Amino acid sequence: MIRDNIEQLLAEIPEGVELAAAAKARTPEEIEEAIEAGVRVIGENYVQEALAAHDQVKLPARWHFIGHLQTNKVRKIVEIFDMIQTVDSLRLAREIDKRCGAIGKVMPILIEVNSGREPQKCGVLPEEAVELIGEAALLPNLKVEGLMTMGPLTGDPELARPYFVETRNLFEKTAELGIPGVEMKVLSMGMTNSYRVAIEEGSNLVRIGTKIFGPRG
Ligand SMILES: *Cc1c(COP(=O)(O)O)cnc(C)c1O
Question: How many whole angstroms from 127 Cα to the centroid of ligand 1?
């Protein structure tokens, strides 16, 4: 089933758009099945789960952190992740910089944008993103490579469209600023419910869980 779902997605998604398998609550066996079927990026939300999965999954993949990251957990994860998509504060950026410096690594990061301006949600407000990007760009052991957004979770993917549009506009505006050390190339938007709309609005990295693995138990 996982293989069929992935083949269908890979056939549907246009060239230049990367499929990340959002693997929270999935077993290492399920993750390996996804990689065998052609997924190149594994998204993980939880530190302990990610460490265990990374330990057991032997097939090659790029690991992206896509959950809320607490500063006290950064040290544990910088070695195994290839990208952190959810940087939303200078404090967190500084901690990633420090921990990567200690192991001689430069971490690609995305700035998470709270495009729906939801008070309880993670992410920096759209109007505060450029300032954070400018500050993060000065840190030597991380590299800002784009933006990530969730958008408000609604049943109707059309309702997510304005938030994807706003994030894409911010992405383009930031690229035009030409901030030294910043390379705006990844725009991570879209999940099972919303990936089609997100791709229409410029996403080049979709994070899909349910449509790959089935409903979470
Ligand atoms: C769970 C999750 C996804 C995937 O959600 P689905 O609706 O299962 O596709 C994508 N992004 C993030 C950050 C997630 O936590």
Answer: 25
Alpha helices in 37-156 (DSSP H): 47-56, 74-77, 90-103, 129-136
Pocket of ligand 1 (CB under 6 A): 22, 24, 45, 66, 150, 191-193, 207-211
Nearest residue to 83 (alpha-carbon basis) of 111, 105, 63, 59: 63
Of 191, 193, 208, 213, the one to substitute when testing ligand 1's pocket (max ligand atoms within 8 A of C-beta) is 191
pLDDT single digits (tens) 45-83: 999 999 999 999 999 999 999 999 999 999 999 999 999
Cα-based distances in Å from 57 to 31, 60, 72: 7, 8, 25
**By three-state DSSP, how is residue 17 classified?**
coil
| Confidence (pTM) | 0.97
Atom from ligand 1 closest to the CA of residue 210: 8
> Ligand 1 center to residue 23 CA distance, Å?
8
Give yes or no for a contact between 57 and 31, defined as CB atoms under 8 angstroms apart: yes
